[in-house]
Amino acid sequence: MINILVTGSDGQLGQCLQKIAHKYPKMTFFFMDRIGLDITDKNNIQAVFKKHKFHFCINCAAYTNVEQAEKTPEIAFAVNAVGIRNLAIVCKENNVKLIHISTDYVFDGEKKDGYLPSDKPNPINEYGKSKLKGEQYIQEILKEFIIIRTSWLYSEFGHNFYKTILKKAKRKETISITDSQIGCPTDANNLALHIINIMESQEFESGIQHVTDGEAMSWYEFAEKIVKEHKLDSEVKVVKDKNYRTFAKRPVNSVLI
Ligand SMILES: NC(=O)c1ccc[n+]([C@@H]2O[C@H](COP(=O)([O-])OP(=O)(O)OC[C@H]3O[C@@H](n4cnc5c(N)ncnc54)[C@H](OP(=O)(O)O)[C@@H]3O)[C@@H](O)[C@H]2O)c1
């Protein structure tokens, strides 16, 4: 039997893992939400690891509010950097393999082509900086880890672009979307399957992986695709860059390959 701890289990990816866990009888999942296990509290992590012998820890816990992270970066760093350091230390103490999820936002978006795992990160917003720091702690502390960088996650769970567009389209609202950023939308259910496959395979190769659904597009093109897929007839309009403002800077090209 393989024992697996899933942190941040009430988030989007955590819920995708919960949905399929029953299909893997040789795996026992311990799903812990923020109340059960707060990764900013090392004693809390140690107590949970003392109670059970885990083989893997899948870290889905993260501070993911990109806009708010600009205003209160200390909170983003407390979770995405210090929290990850805590988790890595306790994984090391207990010989647990860590599978951690990171982001396309560790890159500045200046590259013409897609980003490889070996490309040098250079985050341009506080969320990206905090996630990069978390990656660095893992690499410093652990020998057995996989960092999966993914992008533009969507699913039936939580708040995400896909659900927002679908809701607007069903109400026949005109949808105005920027076409100035390109990335790879990724179904979080596919990412959950990828993580399970890693644990099922006999090989565990430490390092950084880029995992997406593989098709690069702009937010505008993604919105159009969602509307078409559901045979809805909302109009999707492009918002030109000067009219599109967010507090946090976002990479223009965050395609991961
Ligand atoms: N969503 C995307 O488009 C995207 C893109 C690229 C990479 N990623 C990465 O993919 C991973 C999963 O993303 P997601 O969409 O599933 O995120 P999510 O829905 O925001 O889930 C994150 C979960 O972590 C929990 N959490 C926050 N602080 C915590 C703490 N101190 N201790 C324990 N749990 C805590 C949150 O709980 P509360 O809700 O109670 O705060 C939430 O349930 C994250 O690492 C994210 O950085 C996401």
Q: Your description of this structure?
A:
Helix content is 37%, strand content 19%. It contains 8 helices and 12 strands. It has a 6-stranded parallel beta sheet, sandwiched between helices. Strand 4, helix 5 (126-141) and strand 5 (145-150) form a beta-alpha-beta unit. Helix 1 (12-20) crosses helix 7 (188-200). The longest helix is centred in the first third of the chain and has 21 residues, at 73-93. The two termini are 34 Å apart. The mean pLDDT is 95.
Topology:
Blueprint: E1 2-7, H1 12-20, E2 27-32, H2 42-51, E3 56-59, H3 66-71, H4 73-93, E4 97-103, H5 126-141, E5 145-150, E6 153-154, H6 161-170, E7 175-178, E8 182-183, E9 186-187, H7 188-200, E10 207-210, E11 217-218, H8 219-229, E12 236-239
Parallel strand pairs: 1-2, 1-3, 3-4, 4-5, 5-10, 6-9, 7-12
Antiparallel strand pairs: 8-11
Bound molecules: NADP nicotinamide-adenine-dinucleotide phosphate.
